[in-house]
Structures are given as C-alpha cells and as structure tokens.
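Working notes for the structural subgroup meeting. M.R. asked for a predicted model of this chain before we commit to crystallization trials. I am recording the input and output together here so anyone reviewing the notebook later can reproduce the run.

Input as submitted:
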Amino acid sequence: MKNSNFAPEFIMSVCFRANLLFIFQSIFIFSQMTPNSELKEPDIHEVADLLTDVASTLMTSGAHTSRISQNVSRMAETYGYQVDLSVFQLSIMMTITSLENQHERLTLIKKTAPLLLNYNIVSELSALSWDTYDGKITFEDAKELYHEITTKKRISRWSVLLLVSLANAAFCGLFHGDLYAISLVFFSTMSGFLIRQEMIKRHVNHLVVFTTSAFVASLVAGMAYVYNIGTTPDIALASSVLYLIPGVPLINSILDIIQGHILTGMARLVNAISLIVCISIGLFSSMLILGLEKL
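Returned structure, recorded in token form:
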C-alpha cells in the first residue's frame, strides 16, 4: 500500500513544482516586458522645456554664449536630440530635432530675465549637463536637480551690501587713497548699492538704476571736496563708482565676438557701453551739483 500511494503523491509534487516554476517564469518575463517608468524616455516637449529653462538661466546668471550652447547641446544629445540655439539679449530661440526622426522637431522662444549674476548657478548647471551626459542621472532626476539649483537660497542682501562696500573701499586703498578716502568710499558705496538694491527690487529700468546709483555714491564721496576731508579726495570720488562697472557684460561681449556669436556679442557690448554712459551721467551730475565740473 505504501508503494501504491507513493506514485500519485510524487506525481502531484512534481506537477506542483512545475506549476510554481511556470508562474515564476511568467512573472519574470512579464516584468521584463513591462516598461519601467523611471527609464521611460522623455518626449520632445519635456526635453525642450527643460533645455530652454537651462539656457535662459545660464544667460541670466552671466554665462557666455558658447558655454550656454555647449551645456544645452550636451544634455540634448543624451536624450537623443540635437539643438540649434540662438541666444539674444532678451530672448532665446531653440529648435530641437530628434536624431532618429528628422521630421520630429520643435521650435521654442523663451524670454530671459534681467541679468542677475550668479556663477554658482553657472557652475552647477554645467556640472548637471556633464552628469546627464555621463549617464549618472535620469531625465526626471535632472529636472529635480535643476529645480533645486535655481531655487537655492541666495546669500543675504545685507551680506552682499557689506562685502561690496568693503571691496570698493579696498580699491580706493589700492589707488593710494588715504584712510579718510577709504572710509568715505565705504559709506558712499553702501549708500549707492543700497539704492540699487531697492530700485531693482521695484523693477526699475536698469539704465535708471545705474545712473541713480552712480549719482548717490559720487555725491557722498564728493563731500571730501566740500569739507576738505583727507588729502586724496580725487581718489575717493573716482573710486566711488567702480562697483558699478559692468565687467561681466564687457568680458562676455568680447568672448562672444571672438567665438563667432557676433550678434549676441554686439548686443552685450552695446548694453555694457550704455551702462558706462549712465555711470558717467550720474557722476557728472553730482559733480555739477557740488561745483566740481572743472576737475
């Protein structure tokens, strides 16, 4: 009897194990066939939106045109697209085309925000483009990291005010200004830069901002002439507006022209020259009020 019961039990055990193995194999095959949402390729609209945001942020933060183009093209190639990018002073135009299907293309135009220099953002976005190119992060992770980079809290405006004032006072010292001139430049810079911060906060035209800031700073520094403070009042007056010199737009304009981005480079150069003219107008206006126009 034992031998007669053994065969059915053995057959049932083998069948059960075979069914169990079949179920596991089916689950494995099905999981392989089911697309993973994390690895899902982004469509052209998603990629275009991210790339235009990156390009606009780089432009606003002070990157030159070649760097913007390289970073955006690097990210586009990672996701199977190529980019034709045109960077202008107030807008960015991008045409993105699929590498697999040349008929799949999209053109976007995005306005850029006013210049707000932040080389930390430029550096971090460049690193982000390399991370996507090397395959270290997915498209969804790239979007999250972009959001983290652009929403990161900036340094306190009061810290910036203090540091800019100290830096400009140090320039006065480098030009052999005496202690009185250095102190006066510190306070004149603080006054002018505070006015600049408040006007930018209220979205005043940047040309008006530069003219007013130069006027206030030079007016305060000109007190050295009015009250005969120190022995180097001329250095104090000249140094008081140095913090407004548009060095980054000037450098970027030359780089763009050298690298073949003539239109963008000329636009940046004209903008930088306009700012210098505004600084001159503000400085000369304060000199007229103080009776120093013959200096």
